[in-house]
From TrEMBL:
Pathway: Amino-acid biosynthesis; L-arginine biosynthesis; N(2)-acetyl-L-ornithine from L-glutamate: step 2/4. Its EC number is 2.7.2.8. Substrate binds at G64, G65, R86, N190. Residues 24-272 form the Aspartate/glutamate/uridylate kinase domain. InterPro entries: AceGlu_kinase-like_sf, AcgluKinase_fam, ArgB, Asp/Glu/Uridylate_kinase, Glu/AcGlu_kinase, NAGK-C. GO terms for biological process: L-arginine biosynthetic process via ornithine. It comes from Heliophilum fasciatum. GO terms for molecular function: acetylglutamate kinase activity; ATP binding. CDD domains: AAK_NAGK-C (cd04250). This is Acetylglutamate kinase.
């Protein structure tokens, strides 16, 4: 048990971080398996609300890959991934939007409301928030050349109109955003939630981008938890991707951190969403956790 003095010490340790981040925007991406557990979900929402009440402007972008997988299975649709991106045909796109914008977005909003915060749920199709275009994934062929590959209704962000989100944070709401964009003709595109979080962080000139995931951070050896890279320079990222050290779903994460840093976001972090209150540990303690991607 902590003594009263130790408890007070923990609160005092948070003071410089509260001071530094008060009034600043922090974009948090929450998704994957870390989203399936109710206790963890509640801890994440509590952390986000706490951030808000100490003067930070949190913006939540959520994924929901495993939930989409579950629903696709229920309706008998197969799903495949190319470099961490879901190949998305028309029928899959409908399910993706139903699960992300219809189910999960509203559940998260309801949970924040229940715990005492004020949240507004949006998808990128609302209010022209995310303009998207079809993404062609660059995939290596046998000769080792990167060839643009059609993966259906998967989108790249063309433009973010951040005013709506800014207005909400200024009025004290916590925006909760589903990663779907609108094409030229209003059609829906499935965008990886990490990509949306990175782009939004840049558009909002956020101070921090935090990606919550289902591993400790970036590991040099996936089978060795002691090999966590706590600080990774953006110049070293491509080598690690080329060597296969960083693969699958970690690729969009690390790339969006690189882009966010290059786009002016103060700091980017990939942290373990399976640890209760990992957000608080990252934001309000000296040591932080996970991998910080730095210039
Ligand atoms: N070097 C690495 N270190 C840690 N995880 C890695 C690494 N390379 C690939 N991964 C994989 O990336 C996954 C995280 O990506 P993803 O499953 O898309 O997460 P989320 O669903 O949280 O967005 C990890 O669970 C792990 O399997
Ligand atoms: C193009 C693409 O892959 N989109 C993702 C969108 C959801 C997401 O990113 O969810 P997680 O963060 O939980 O993985 C998908 O269809 O799964």
């Amino acid at each position: 048990m902590l003594t009263a003095l130790e408890k007070a010490g923990i609160l005092v340790e948070a003071l410089p971080y509260i001071k530094k981040l008060s009034g600043k925007t922090v974009v948090i991406k929450y998704g994957g398996n870390a989203m399936l557990n109710d206790e963890l979900k509640e801890a994440v929402m509590t952390d986000v609300i706490l951030m808000k009440y100490v003067g930070i402007k949190p913006v939540l972008v959520h994924g929901g890959g495993p939930e989409i997988n579950g629903m696709l299975q229920r309706v008998g649709l197969q799903s495949t991934f190319v470099q961490g991106m879901r190949v998305t045909d028309q029928a899959t796109m409908e399910i993706v939007e139903m699960v992300l914008a219809g189910k999960l977005n509203k559940e998260i909003v309801a949970m924040i409301q229940r715990f005492g915060g004020q949240a507004v749920g949006l998808s990128g199709r609302d209010g022209g928030l995310i303009k998207a275009k079809k993404r062609f994934e660059l995939v290596k062929n046998e000769a080792g050349d990167r060839v643009p590959t059609d993966i259906g209704f998967v989108g790249d962000v063309v433009r973010i109109q951040p005013d709506l989100v800014r207005g909400l944070t200024e009025q004290g709401y916590i925006p909760v955003i589903a990663p779907i964009g609108a094409g030229d003709h209003g059609e829906a595109y499935n965008i990886n939630a990490d990509v949306v979080a990175g782009e939004l962080a840049q558009a909002l000139e956020a101070d921090k981008l935090i990606l919550l995931t289902d591993v400790e951070g970036i590991l040099r050896d996936r089978h060795d938890l002691g090999s966590l890279i706590s600080s990774l320079r953006i110049g070293d990222v491509e080598d690690l991707v080329e060597q296969g050290v960083i693969s699958g779903g970690m690729i969009p994460k690390v790339h969006c951190c690189v882009q966010a840093i290059e786009g002016g976001v103060g700091s980017t972090h990939i942290i373990d969403g399976r640890i209760q209150h990992s957000l608080l540990l990252e934001v309000f303690t000296e040591k932080g956790i996970g991998t910080m991607v730095v210039k």
